[in-house]
Amino acid sequence: MQSTLKKLSEALGISISTVSRALKDHPDISAATRAKVKELAAAMEYEPNSYAVQLRTKRSNLLGILIPSIDNYFYDSFIAAVEDEARQYGYSVLIMQSRDDVAIETANLNFFRKNMVMGLFATVSIATEEYAPFRKLEDQKIPIVFFDRVPEVSGFHSVCLADEDAARIAAEAIIEKKKKNVLALFGHPHLSISKIRRDTFLKTFKEKSPSTKITVDYTEQSAPSKEATLAALTSDEKPDVVFCMGDMILVGVMKAIHELNLRVPEDVAVISISNGFIPGMYKPVITYVETSGYKLGKLAFSQMYGRLKNEEVAENVCVPSMLVKGASL
User: Fold this and answer.
1) What DSSP string describes 21-86?
2) pTM for the whole thing?
3) What is the mean pLDDT of residues 87-105?
4) How many domains does the chain have?
């Protein structure tokens, strides 16, 4: 940058410091001089050294996103929403994956801090129990908005899906169809999102259909979901419906159903909580309770922007859930 400033100063016959202040619209520099400097800078395609500006101002216009894995349609749609909003307000986005490893998560947090992100959107890893690394960012005036998997401890801002409503809506849809043997597959039992959805799901059946048999398993990803479904559907007491807590579970369930050449919903019904893309890949289309990653991303950015502007922002906000009927139930 210095060599370019020098060229500008030599061409205009003014000092480097005057050129620098003119480019920053310093009030001590006359409007005429500022105009001449900016005109020549544009002609020379001058660009300020963004890293130097960042060090000087302690501002990067960079927002971080920390997720377990990028190969997930829900997170992909969340990122798309944040990027759409960030671009409109002049921010860039840096995305990193924790791979559900606390050591990697902590290293990524340090990386975000060293790169002076202005704010961070974060989903915690499965094994996260200590939140000191996150609080360190908050202490350094880097606001964090948690989403999807959020801390069970207080004192953090978060956006979430209406997890209780989503589980209740799914349970009520199953009860309405008078199903009597439910295989309910949830995410990792350590996560608050799994606990909330499981507890609400079971509570709804206890209150509205206590005689229904419910088998609960925690399968998290596609492969174990397939194995659990195969075992259940080849047992003596086959379930008449499978509930999937998320899209990756749904993928595994459908692999098992196809492998066994079963018909949906005649041989076994299926309902999922979903971002909405995966259910449409099957025939018949899977009935699902919508939990939109894109809508969550929009809401998360709104909360983050409010915090960056030092506005009063609710500590916890949720995206409503709704039933989207397919033909699988």
Assistant:
1) HHHTT-TTS-HHHHHHHHHHHHHTT----HHHHHHHHS---EEEEEES-SS-HHHHHHHHHHHHHH
2) 0.76
3) 95
4) 3
